[in-house]
Amino acid sequence: MAKEHGTKLIANNKKAFHDYFIEEVYEAGIVLVGTEVKSLRQGKCSIKESYISVENGQVIIHKMHINPYEKGNIFNKDPLRDRKLLLHKSEINKLIGRTKDKGYTIVPLKVYFSNSLVKLEIGLAKGKKLYDKRETLKKNDQKREAERDFKIKL
């Protein structure tokens, strides 16, 4: 019988779903040092202001904030340092090709532990216009009201 391995969510970027249409989702590893992993285990991470770029064939996440580990002293790194993401070469080439199209960007969606490894879910996204955002909010409100009405009738 196979053992089920759980995932523990560390940080979520809800704003990305509000500001972008997410077309493709990829799972990437992150290059971290030991104290950063310990800080992530405590849940001290933010990806709200972060963004992803492709430089020299490498995918890099900028402005991902990981609080310094309290007991890390001299081993702590800069909380906002750039971190390399680990993806397959074919995925990187696909991302490079798609981001050259107008309006496409790569955004971080969530950070989580998969078994004992820190993973970052990234999405290939196209920006929403203001009227698209309003339409999405309207659809979500209608869906919420329909669920509420259905729940009351039961």
How would you characterize this protein structure?
The chain is α+β, with helices and mostly antiparallel strands and about 150 residues long. It is built from four helices and nine strands. It has helices at about 15-20, 35-40, 90-100, 130-154, and strands at about 5-10, 20-30, 45, 50-55, 60, 65, 85, 105-115, 115-125. The strands form two sheets. The protein has a seven-stranded antiparallel beta sheet.
Average pLDDT, to the nearest integer? Answer: 82
- Gyration radius (Cα, Å) is 18 Å
Distance between the termini: 39 Å
Number of separate helices: 4
Strand content: 35-45%
How many extended strands? 9
Profile the largest sheet: 7 strands, antiparallel
The helix/strand class is: alpha+beta
Helix percentage range: 25-40%
List the strand order in the largest sheet: 1-8-9-2-7-5-4
What would you call the shape? globular
Low-confidence stretches: none
The SSE string, one letter per element, is: EHEHEEEEEHEEH
List keywords for this structure.
single chain; 154 residues; alpha+beta; 7-stranded antiparallel beta sheet; two-stranded antiparallel sheet; 4 helices; 9 strands
List the helices and strands and how they pair.
Blueprint lengths: L6 E6 L1 H6 E11 L3 H8 L3 E2 L4 E5 L2 E5 L2 E2 L16 E4 L2 H11 L4 E11 L2 E11 L2 H24 L1
Produce a short descriptive summary.
The protein contains 4 helices and 9 strands; from the N terminus they run βαβαβββββαββα.
